Amino acid sequence: MTSVLIPDERIVDKIFLIRGQKVMLDRDLADLYGVETKRLKEAVKRNLSRFPEDFMFELTKDEFANWRSQIATSNSDRMGLRYLPMVFTEHGVLMLSSVLNSKRAVNVNIQIG
Question: Is the pTM above the cut of 0.85?
Answer without folding.
Answer: no
